[in-house]
Amino acid sequence: MNEALAASAFQNAIETYKQDFGTFFLARLLGLEITYTEDTCVVEMPVRDFEFNPQGSLHGGVIATILDISMGHLLNRQVGPGATLDLNVQYLKAARSGRLTATGSFIRKGRQICFLRSELKGDDGDLIASATSTWKVI
């Protein structure tokens, strides 16, 4: 593990986070870049070894987090704040290097319940993981 990189990422997160969408501590620690289109939320991140599981690839919890953020931020931007009721992740391929991009989109918008999906792809365009989720608008 690159301890200097891990320490630098942690220090940067401490110094630059704000408890708000896109700038909260975990987003800063993971190095997330969050952008929006009319219908999507795109979350990009570098793959770094301090986020790896013991098998030497990006930890599934980090993958689930990125997918969740892409959907939750889109919900907040288009409908309002919400809470995840259900998150289902399908892990398809290991991620070991490069940059990843999660793209969240709506399946259905309701007044109180919304359904979203997200796909996580690598630099090469290969699908790493996908997720669907159910959200309660609060």
From TrEMBL:
Gene3D superfamilies for the chain? Hotdog Thioesterase
Looking at the record, the residues that make up the Thioesterase domain are 55-128
Give the matching Pfam families. 4HBT
InterPro entries associated with the record: HotDog_dom_sf, PAAI_dom, Thioestr_dom
Q: Could you identify this protein by its name?
A: PaaI family thioesterase
Q: Which UniProt keywords apply?
A: Hydrolase
Q: Which GO terms describe its molecular function?
A: acyl-CoA hydrolase activity
The protein's matches in CDD domains, at most eight in alphabetical order, are given as:
PaaI_thioesterase (cd03443)
Origin species, per record, is Pseudomonas atacamensis
Instruction: Report the domain of life of the source organism.
Output: Bacteria
The residues that cross the membrane are: none
